[in-house]
């Protein structure tokens, strides 16, 4: 902990631009930066005003003229990229998501204010892109380590990294890449949101009196896994940005513990006071299950006066299926950041239970 404290002396002059401030990673990061005394701008296409102290900016990252118009008086010292856009093919993912970064850094370049850029990607760096995700030809050795080479596959994470490296070489700023496992945290409308997806699924099971059925693979049910609390990711982003010994490095980031889903799944069911079923030889994708549950969710929303009646805004079943259906156990090594002083730890069951409590208190689940 001492290493972390010594690198956080004076944040008064630090101006953060959080790109994707309405998402799981961005919203938690913005809140933590504000707590630490930073000036924080939050850039997104549809900004929210629900974080006290955050200065929202509406802009379209795909259009440089939109960025130029939105940022005339904003000169950030630190840029945190926590967003991406999903497209139909990996080629489009590469074109679009590298443009998001390149456009913004090009617009900021003449200001000469940026000292550091942080980019959040994830484990698809090791497991492959969506259309070749965790297939037999790309299965890596676990635990996943930062020094493992890039896969010989098109991957928009690589293109995003390269856009940061190119701008850093041009403008002289330092950088970090952060690779969380599945992010657990609160937001609405996020494309990758396992915690809320499972909470909504469990709530529907409770309403219908049906068991909480494991949707994924045998390897994930029995294997060792880890996840990343969004607040842990926020801590690592800030630590790395302010710690010169961490600069110009890629870091895995997880809660610091490991678990098996066959241990955690019954505990989630117990939290919701429902029965459960584990892996029984068949994968049962949530995308199929939840597709038929719009009507029952609307009934639940009406009965409990919840705030979001659109099931599609809450769940990301396709991504949860992708993670829970993987044909191998997946866990990551965090030695690189631990050796440099990053010590934040979170027990995973607490990540889920605290999220469920927050969702209930905020009238998102019953």
UniProtKB/TrEMBL annotation:
InterPro entries: NAD(P)-bd_dom_sf, PRISE-like_Rossmann-fold. Residues 77-366 form the PRISE-like Rossmann-fold domain. It comes from the Bacteria. It holds the Pfam family PRISE. This is Nucleoside-diphosphate-sugar epimerase. It comes from Flavobacterium circumlabens. The lineage of its organism: Bacteria, Pseudomonadati, Bacteroidota, Flavobacteriia, Flavobacteriales.
């Amino acid at each position: 902990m001492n290493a972390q404290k010594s690198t956080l002396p004076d944040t008064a002059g630090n101006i953060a631009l959080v790109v994707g401030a309405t998402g799981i990673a961005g919203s938690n990061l913005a809140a933590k930066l504000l707590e630490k005394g930073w000036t924080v701008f939050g850039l997104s296409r549809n900004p929210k005003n629900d974080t006290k102290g955050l200065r929202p900016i509406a802009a379209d990252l795909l259009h440089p003229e939109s960025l130029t118009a939105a940022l005339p008086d904003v000169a950030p010292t630190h840029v945190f990229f926590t967003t991406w856009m999903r497209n139909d093919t990996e080629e489009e993912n590469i074109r679009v998501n590298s443009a998001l970064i390149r456009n913004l850094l090009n617009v900021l370049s003449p200001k000469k204010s940026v000292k550091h850029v942080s980019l959040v990607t994830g484990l698809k760096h090791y497991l492959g892109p969506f259309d070749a995700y965790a297939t037999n030809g790309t299965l890596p050795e676990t635990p996943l380590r930062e020094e493992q080479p890039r896969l010989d596959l098109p991957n928009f994470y690589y293109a995003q990294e390269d856009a940061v490296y190119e701008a850093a070489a041009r403008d002289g700023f330092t950088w970090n890449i952060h690779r969380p496992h599945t992010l657990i945290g609160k937001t609405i409308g996020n494309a990758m949101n396992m915690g809320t997806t499972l909470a909504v699924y469990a709530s529907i099971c409770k309403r219908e009196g049906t068991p909480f059925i494991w949707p994924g693979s045998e390897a994930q049910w029995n294997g060792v896994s880890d996840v990343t609390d969004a607040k842990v990711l926020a801590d690592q982003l800030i630590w790395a940005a302010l710690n010169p010994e961490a600069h110009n490095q890629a870091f895995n980031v997880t809660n610091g513990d490991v678990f098996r889903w066959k241990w955690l799944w019954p505990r989630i069911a117990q939290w919701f006071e429902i029965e459960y079923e584990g892996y029984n030889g068949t994968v049962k994708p949530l995308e199929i299950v939840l597709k038929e549950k719009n009507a029952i969710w609307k009934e639940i929303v009406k009965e409990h006066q919840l705030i979001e009646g659109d099931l599609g805004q809450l769940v990301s079943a396709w991504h949860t299926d992708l993670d829970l259906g993987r044909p191998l156990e997946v866990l990551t090594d965090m030695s690189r950041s631990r050796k440099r002083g990053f010590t934040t730890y979170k027990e995973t069951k607490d990540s889920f239970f605290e999220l469920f409590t927050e969702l209930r208190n905020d009238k998102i689940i019953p």
